[in-house]
Amino acid sequence: MTKSRITVLATGGTIAGIAGSALRHDYRPGQIDIAQYLSTVEGLGLEAEFTGHQIANIGSEDIGPKVWGPLHSAISLAIADPACDGVIVTHGTDTLEETAFLLDLTLPTDKPVVLVGAMRPADAVGYDGLRNFANAARVAGDGDAAGRGVLVVMGDRVFAARDVRKVRTRSTDAFRGYPRGSIGLVTPSALDWFGAPWRRGEAARFVYSDQLPPVVILYAHAGMDPDLARRIVGKDQRGVVIAGVGEGNLPNAVRNILIERRRDGVAVVRASRVDEGLVDREPEDDANGFIAARALNPQKARILLQLLLAEGVVDPAAMQTTFDGR
Ligand code: DAS
């Protein structure tokens, strides 16, 4: 059997973390480098050859454009290399969904790109990182993984970047897909897809930009002080995503401030703070010039809005079409 050739780009996180003792709850993410990691992986006897590159070695709470730029360039190089069959990105789990979605929007779909992490550090009892990595290797080496966009492998499941979200702070079963659940089941020895690829041979939807415009997330809650909206959504912001209550709702006084901001040219997207929160357009969105985030959670809606603004799209109707797409 020919081995698949997989490029592994490491960014840190718990999958490369160390606690120093099985009894410690706290640990340091990003302690093991990729060469060390791949020498452990070698012992698993997987049907793949790995080439590793260290992009960063940090907790994903610190991930942002400074890491996304080099990561995007390294993935693009790997995809263009005929000697590479697929890419794995190791990443902290906290912001994994944001990196996955950004890459999904800015990469072509002809080779598998798979993000993977772990919920327990490498020296924990029941470390999940090696199993997740072995699963990711099976997915990245599978011809049928291409054409589904960027993928996330966690807890024996495969998720599409647009759907995936972290829903638990501790369990190894910490990720879920919404509105589609997982799109495949995987173990180190087996992979089952639910349905055929739907994005075969697609070009990148957006040009990757290092200059993402400033967009804030405004978290709505009972008893919200409307002045908070005035302070957070300053004139220097190009956009705001509301993590609204229920179906993207917000207090009247806050809405009125955002209508003012919209008139100043700030893009306003209504998302929901509810985990499985579909937010549809309402008639007043037309009058206010607001956009409905649909099934995207606030952190993903922010990334899509930044990419739209970076490409010079400002018309709410055009933006809404992109938010409606998959
Ligand atoms: N430390 C966090 C991170 O790097 C948690 C993790 O990886 O699971 O995102």
What does this structure look like?
There is one protein chain. The protein is α/β, with parallel strands linked by helices and 326 residues long. It folds into 2 domains: 4-193, Rossmann fold (3-Layer(aba) Sandwich); 215-325, Rossmann fold (3-Layer(aba) Sandwich), CATH 3.40.50. 29% of the residues lie in helices and 21% in strands. The protein contains 9 helices and 14 strands. The strands form 3 sheets. Strands 2-1-3-4-5-6-9-10 form an 8-stranded mixed beta sheet, with helices on both faces. Strands 11-12-13-14 form a 4-stranded parallel beta sheet, sandwiched between helices. β4 (113-116), α4 and β5 (151-154) form a beta-alpha-beta unit. α3 packs parallel to α8 (298-310) and α5 packs parallel to α6. The longest helix has 16 residues, at 65-80. The mean pLDDT is 96. D-aspartic acid (DAS) binds at residues 13-14, 29, 59-61, 92-94, 117, 119.
